[in-house]
Amino acid sequence: MGFMLSKSMDQSFKKQQEFILHNARLQMERQIVMQNQMRERQMAMQIAWSREFLKYYGTFFSLATFGLTIGAIKTRKPSVFVPIVPLGFILAYQMDMAYGTLVYRMRGEAESIMDSEHNRLDLPRGAISFETIEKERRAKSSLSALLEK
Q1: 141 located within any domain
Q2: 114 within domain boundaries
Q3: First to last CA, the chain
Q4: Fewest CB atoms less than 10 Å from the CB: which of 78, 84, 90, 96?
């Protein structure tokens, strides 16, 4: 009788462990999907911001170019036209960010850094762990207890 009960409990325990493991895996998969969706939304917002900024900056650049060209012609000084050069670099960067391949190049560079220069990514004092958080929490709670006295 005891053997049958023990065998039944072992099977029940194994099923429960499998169920817990399955639920933990599902929860982790959901978190990964959610984090990826959040990352995609943030990237989409950044690209949309760049495109919107480009509209305003493009208008400014066009007006500045027109005004500086008129000023250079009227004053007969080509040096008035010089600010177009740095403004043109900014325009080119914004166009690359909004519609070009800048994001892909940045991703490639980030992957290269992760592969060949991983030591640059280390956090000061190492990675955060449960123990470090708990140590900090205990220190703060003991400090607040001392201050209350």
Answers
A1: no
A2: yes
A3: 61
A4: 78
